[in-house]
Design a protein that fits this description.
Blueprint (H helix, E strand, L loop, with lengths): L5 E5 L8 E5 L4 E7 L15 E8 L5 E8 L2 H13 L6 E10 L4 H24 L1
Antiparallel strand pairs: 1-2, 2-3, 3-6, 4-5, 4-6
């Protein structure tokens, strides 16, 4: 078994802000971005094909996650913001975690989104049984 290195980059110098993560020998990237930084963001890596997780808080205070996919993740996140402001979406999210990569395409991100949703449902079911 070989070790791997993960490189975290605090884009604005703070862990509460935009963070990118890259794993050695992987051409993808993970990006964490707060909701408040979406509208001012103009990063090319977020404009690509990817899968994203929106970290939400329900009205009763419980945490939840929305899992989605997009051909342009930044455009899709901006659409989520507009839909919430216009009342089309009821959930409020604080942070987005995005996974993008050069080898991703529409078919693969749809598959990944579906698998992540299945895994999340399995986890919830397991927790309910405890």
């Amino acid at each position: 078994m070989y070790g791997k290195a993960i490189e975290l980059f605090l884009v604005n110098g703070s862990a509460d802000s935009l963070i990118t993560a890259e794993l050695s020998n992987w051409n993808g990237k993970a990006i964490k971005i707060p909701r408040t930084e979406i509208t001012g963001c103009d990063r090319d890596d977020i404009k690509g094909v990817g899968v994203y997780f929106l970290m939400c808080q329900e009205d009763d205070g419980t945490d939840s996650v929305y899992i989605g996919e997009a051909e342009n993740v930044l455009d899709r996140l901006t659409q989520h913001l507009r839909d919430y402001q216009s009342g089309k979406e009821k959930y409020y999210w604080n942070t987005a975690v995005i996974f993008v990569g050069r080898d991703l395409n529409k078919a693969l991100i749809r598959y990944l989104e579906n698998r992540f949703v299945e895994i999340a449902k399995d986890v919830v079911d397991h927790i309910k049984r405890l």
